[in-house]
Amino acid sequence: MSTWISDPLTRLRRLVRGGARGSAALGLCLALSGCLEGGEGLAFLTPRDGAADKKAQPKAPVLREVEMARGKVVIRPPRGYCIDQGSLKRGVSGFALIASCNSLRGDYAGADVEPVVMTVSVQPRLVKQEVPTAQAMASVLAPAQAIRHENGDGLSLIQLDRGGNAVLPGGDPKYWRGAMLINGQLVGLALYAPNGSSYAGERGRALILALAENLREASPLRLSPEQAAKLKAK
């Protein structure tokens, strides 16, 4: 399995732990109520964290499952992938970086799954806020163009034609973004793959869908106030 992921993982950790620049435009959109129809709160697509950079360490602690938003969202990666404990951000919003378990432990030669990198960001839902559509996400992420849009089953998903290699050196320009709602929390997903990998395409779609399904299955079922009121009224 390729060892391309070693140095890029270090850089991505640094980006996500101090990436205020990447979220500036999305944060501005959040502040302007008319910026996007149905798109308030799209800042959750880009993690914001002012914590100090931390260099990658060999055999760093990895996790197979972690709770966010006081247990409302449980992140459980697909088989063969783990959560980088050093990337975790918890609080009002949350963030986690996911990669091959072996790669995160420093065993680059022994990885038995494709060395993709996935991210999960979590942010409280604004009042009556819906999941942004794939088209709304694509407009915020311009000038990248969406190759593919999908809306359905509570998940908005897009494949973008550029930008992946800017986040992850050695990665494919194409990458995936997704958005979903779990227990009143807006959850943003992203998947970056090696340059030329089929995971920048259809296989990546299958993997990010598997991640979304794992989050749904692992997270507890909690009724929203609106749902609870309807149930009580019956």
From TrEMBL:
Domain of life from the UniProt record: Bacteria
Protein name per UniProt: Uncharacterized protein
